[in-house]
Amino acid sequence: MAFNKNIQNKDAKFFRFGKFDSVFNGGQTRRKFLKYMMLTGIGVTGTTVTLSLWHKPGFTQVSRQGDWQWCRKCQALSFVGNDSLGACPAGGVHNHRGSGEYVLILDSPNVRGQDNWRWCNKCQVLAFAGNQTLGICAAGGVHNHQGSGNYVLKLNEPNYPGQKEWRWCIKCQELNFAGNDSLGSCPAGGVHNNISSGAYTLEIL
Ligand SMILES: [Zn+2]
Ligand SMILES: [Zn+2]
Ligand SMILES: [Zn+2]
């Protein structure tokens, strides 16, 4: 079974992604974090203030993972770090041409947001696992979240920096981009239904 690999071997990439609070990767110890802050000349106190703008007050550990991309056929967000791109409900496998590089927060219990978003090890998409139904999977049956981390999405935070047109589909539970003219194919049939969704913001490199 495939797992979605952790980003901890890509710290350098994430340190460059220091627009707001992403300088602290969860794979780092606090000592390494402090050392990094000193090396870069950023005051720890000042950074803590920045952190508290977006997260609960105090020292907040934030783990992030890259290798997430948008599929131009089904509009879903899916993980591209495995050998398989995953079955697409629009036919074949997901097609990420034209996608940005998305970064998700995972396994960071102190980060404000909606957690229990999970990676499906069959179709590679990100789907919400907090409802009774796991949602129909394009690879057959329902999504399977075994091996996934616990992802946290920013929900209804209009000032959080990132791309804001992401929505939850009530039929398949998948996160999908709703900023295009057409909604994407839904594995539960027809196109995604985002009527009951809040507004999700994704960080993009
Ligand atoms: Zn797709
Ligand atoms: Zn699936
Ligand atoms: Zn759907």
Distance between the termini: 29 Å
Return the string of H and E elements: HHHEEEEEEEEE
Number of domains: 1
Annotation field: number of helices:
3
Structural class: alpha+beta
List keywords for this structure.
alpha+beta, 9-stranded antiparallel β-sheet, binds zinc ion
Structure notes:
By secondary structure, the protein is an alpha+beta fold. The chain has one domain (1-205). It is built from 3 helices and 9 strands. The protein has helices spanning 11-16, 30-39, 44-54, and strands spanning 64-70, 77-79, 102-106, 114-119, 126-128, 151-155, 163-168, 175-177, 200-204. Strands 1, 2, 3, 4, 5, 6, 7, 8 and 9 form a 9-stranded antiparallel β-sheet that branches. The longest helix has 11 residues, at 44-54. It is globular and about 45 Å long. The chain binds zinc ion (3 copies). One zinc ion binds at residues 71, 73-74, 76, 88, 90, 94. The site of one zinc ion has 7 residues, from loops.
Give the secondary structure arrangement, pairings included.
Layout: H1 11-16, H2 30-39, H3 44-54, E1 64-70, E2 77-79, E3 102-106, E4 114-119, E5 126-128, E6 151-155, E7 163-168, E8 175-177, E9 200-204
Antiparallel strand pairs: 1-2, 1-3, 3-6, 3-9, 4-5, 4-6, 6-9, 7-8, 7-9
Bound molecules: zinc ion (3 copies).
Residues 120, 122-123, 125, 137, 139, 143 line the site of one zinc ion.
In short:
The protein is of the alpha+beta class and 205 residues long. It has 3 helices and 9 strands.
